[in-house]
Amino acid sequence: DTLLKREQQIDEKEHTPDIVKLYEKLRLCMEKVDQKAPEYIRMAASLNAGETTYSLEHASDLRVEVQKVYELIDALSKKILTLGLNQDPPPHPSNLRLQRMIRYSATLFVQEKLLGLMSLPTKEQFEELKKKRKEEMERKRAVERQVLFFFQSFC
After folding, report:
1. Mean of the per-residue pLDDT values for the chain?
2. 143 lies in which domain range?
3. What is the pTM of this model?
């Protein structure tokens, strides 16, 4: 009998509750967003400025990837929120509160990060932005040449 209880205690110690497993997955997703979102934001800003440092296709793929992780965060937090609701007895009120807080923090995380995801230009807009940037760079070079010529003629 004592041996059976001991085995049961060991099993309980080794058993990871579902909420912990889901929360760990949720945190991994949040970390992934924290890594990928700034990269996307840099790309989008560059592309919207008409720069050709990044490819529009790669930025678009990254945006889709980040959005999928947001969807996963949302799904995981919803799953955490509803854990054990159909069980008898229902979860302890403190567990339910924890589940609501996890959902709330995940929702805030997604909202905060999504606001920072500026949109990408369309292919046509990007071509126009590149053209304008090239014209602007040519104008700057022309002005620089004029200034240089001006100073050289006086020195």
Report:
1. 90
2. 122-155
3. 0.75
